[in-house]
Every structure is written in structure tokens, then in C-alpha cells.
Write a structure and sequence with these properties.
Blueprint: E1 4-8, H1 23-31, H2 45-57, E2 62-65, H3 74-82, E3 89-94, H4 101-114, E4 119-123, H5 129-134, H6 141-160, E5 169-172, E6 177-181, E7 197-200, H7 204-213, E8 216-220, H8 224-235, E9 240-250, H9 253-262, H10 269-277, H11 283-288, E10 300-301, H12 305-308, E11 314-318, H13 319-331, E12 336-340, H14 344-365
Length: about 375
Amino acid sequence: MNLRFHWMLPKGGEVSLNGPQTPREAANYRLASTRAGSPAPRPDIPGWTHFGKHAEDAGIDSLLVSFSRYEPDPIIVSAALGQTTSKLGFIAAYRSGLMKPTTFVQQLNTVSAFMPGRVSINIVAGSSIAEQRGYGDYLAHDERYARADEFLAVCHSFWRAPARTDGDVNFDGKYYRVEHGKLHTPFFGRERGVPEIYISGHSEQAEQLARSKGTCLLRVADTPEHLHAAVARTRELGIEVCLRMCIICRPTRQEAIDVAESLLPEDDLGQYERSVAVKNDSQMYREASQVENRWLTPLLWTGFVPYYGPVWTTLLGSFDDVAGALVEYKKIGVTQFIMSGWPELDEVVTFGGEVVPRVRRTEARL
């Protein structure tokens, strides 16, 4: 199985159509996405379409469309962008519990009909107490995972229903109850009858949910040594593992380091620290708050994490460096990656043109 590479959909306004951007100029859109006046809440169809076509050409499998109160609805965005591309997939993030599972399946199945085989979901239990309560969700961390388990159990029942003789879905749980549920719009997945389901998280509950109801565990990158045991446990059950990371690939390692240093905050550290601290109900963010060693390996850098959060854990180096590191993750069982870079457009083009061919050549030898 070849490694699969996905990319983070840029924030609204982040893709420049009028000329080149420096990494700092591009990153500022993401850093400012939660502030008043940011373009992030407004759908950027021209910018996203431009990026999507380049990502498609670069060999990117799918785009992750994130969920938060600071940006448009990811399922609707995926449906719109699916009409502007021909091969590119979309991983729509969703917070289970904000919609009834029957309605969710009906909506997702409908979107899948617009672009068969190109829509997946990323289930996130939640990371911010304030944001969850803004959506009307007051459950604690562990209960959210218990509810997500029931949510996906109902979803799977509907996705399996066409093969049942009666076609009804019945479910009686703590959080959901469904009687004689019927949905006549199937999921259009080409070779799959259900979507790929990425479960995000670092907690034990996240791992358990991925193994019981998901197809892939999604977590932030760490060293192969630290990940080996968790990856092995997950792969033994036939579940894939996807790592979330940032990428800075340049002709030389020093050039990559220079780019990274240009993105470190110059002022207003309190604002950045607060943006990380607000994710106060996430095991992933709690781990990030304890990060001290900036270089986990000669190529894996956590210098951004204290300011911007764990998903800014960065793999950086020359084209050969980055390709070699990705293959090392493959050797321990990692199968997929979701990446970001600065500027997103330049980075995805460079990654597709320089790193992906190197990875494929190595995979062929292996």
C-alpha cells in the first residue's frame, strides 16, 4: 500500500491569486482566523478552487475541511468544491452530537451523490468547552466520546441498512433513540458502502472509538519511537493511522530552518498563548502545553507548538530529508498524512513535484 497524502484546506483569503506570498504573509491568515475582521468565515471559492486544482495535480488525495465557529460549514464547503475538481477527495470534519445521526447520514449521503467516492468524515469530539457550549453541547470529555460511539453506531446501521431484509434501523441507547428509521438515499462510495471515518484525538477514548467505529486514527505527528506501540495496536485491528503535521520542504535543510524561524511570533505572545489555552478540553492540547524540547528528531520540530498549537508540529528539511522521514513512518505502520505549509499553494506544488516522487521511488524499492 502506497502512502496517501492529504492537505489542509487553506483558510478563506489565504490563497493569493495576485502574486507570490512570503511564508509569513500566508501564515498570518491562519493566525488571524479567529480575530474580528478575518476573511476566514467567508467562503473563498475562487481561492479554494485554485488551490484544489494544484493539489489535485500534485497528487494530493484529499483536502481536510476543518470545523470551528470561525469558518464555514465543512460539509457544504466539500459539496461546493467537489464540483470544481474531478479527482480530489474531501475529508469533512464534524463534531458528533450537534446533529441527529439520521439527519447527518442523509446529508452526507446526498453530498456523496454529487462526487461518488470523494467524501470522507473526520469525527472530532471537541476541544474547547466554550465553543462546545456555544453549539449547545454541555457534555464532558469522556461523555462526548461515549456519545460519538452511539452516533457512529446509528450511522453505520443506516449505511448497512440497504443490505438488510427489512431496511429499518432501530437503536435504543443513552444518547440516541431511533425507531424504524429509513433513508432511501444511499452512500455513493464507488467501492465502499460507507465513508472513510477519521477519528481525531490522543486520548484512550479516541483510540477506542477509532478501533470500534472508525477506519483511521488521526493524531499529531511524533517520533516513530513514541508512536510505534499505538500504531501497532491500531493496525492489528485493521484500522489505518494518519498523522497530522506541517511541512517545510526546501532544497536544503538550512533553507527550511530559515523559513521556520521566520514564522515564530515577534510580538503579542499572550494572544498566541491564549489561542492555545482555550483548547482546554483536549488531551492533544494538554500534551502540547507540556512540550519543551523543540527538536524531537533532527527533522521534527515543535517550535511553533507553544504558540500555535499541536497541529503545527513541523517536519522540515531538504526534499530527500522529508521523503526519507515519511518512509520511516511507513515502516512502523503509518499509512496516511494530512499536511499544511506556508504558503499552502507553493508548499503543495513543491511537495508534489519534489517529495512525492522520491517517496514513490523508495516505496517501489521496498
